[in-house]
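User: Design a sequence. Structure:
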């Protein structure tokens, strides 16, 4: 239960838990209060660490992966600007969750749990197929939206779209007229 003291975990259970986490496909890492990576399972090491000896500072892990062409995708090509941006958010809340694209084109869903002691647990799960599905849904939505506003033969705005634009224009004109009539015309900017 939340709010109760944690009971001691027997050493044999800790050993099995560590073995299970190490074998897990999800990426698991533990950072100390100084933000050094002190432990990572095999999956996390394959994605971020590879030959980097631990412990290693978070920023050094990111730099190492960037130089090696693996880890998080840094589209700008500027690892220091990337670090400056993410370090502002890192450790800013007791729990964070976000999607991150990787240098190999895959995507992961990352959760970070910051303990009161300053230790940070990071767990990431692969979500590439979900991101591809999301992209296809967005493209289908955009296509349907354009089709609903465009005549298929002429590719010009259809009647519904023209009426929507005309209605919005008339409403804006009416609001401007009312504002001018009420003596507020000098404060209204038409756009």
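Assistant: Done.
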């Amino acid at each position: 239960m939340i709010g109760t003291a944690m009971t001691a975990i027997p050493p044999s259970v800790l050993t099995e838990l560590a073995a299970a986490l190490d074998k897990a496909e999800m990426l698991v890492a533990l950072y100390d209060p100084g933000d050094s990576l002190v432990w990572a399972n095999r999956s996390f090491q394959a994605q971020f660490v590879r030959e980097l000896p631990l412990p290693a500072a978070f920023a050094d892990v990111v730099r190492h992966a960037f130089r090696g062409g693996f880890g998080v995708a840094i589209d700008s090509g500027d690892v220091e600007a990337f670090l400056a941006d993410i370090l502002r958010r890192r450790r800013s809340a007791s729990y964070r969750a976000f999607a991150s694209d990787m240098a190999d084109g895959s995507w992961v869903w990352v959760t970070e749990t910051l303990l009161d002691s300053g230790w940070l647990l990071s767990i990431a799960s692969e979500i590439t197929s979900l991101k591809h599905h999301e992209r296809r849904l967005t493209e289908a939505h955009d296509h349907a939206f354009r089709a609903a506003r465009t005549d298929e033969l002429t590719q010009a705005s259809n009647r519904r779209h023209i009426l929507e634009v005309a209605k919005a224009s008339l409403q804006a004109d009416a609001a401007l007229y009312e504002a001018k009539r009420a003596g507020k015309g000098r404060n209204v900017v038409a756009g």
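Strands lie at 27-31, 36-40, 56-57, 95-101, 107-114, 120-126. The helical segments are 11-23, 42-49, 58-68, 79-89, 128-149, 159-181.
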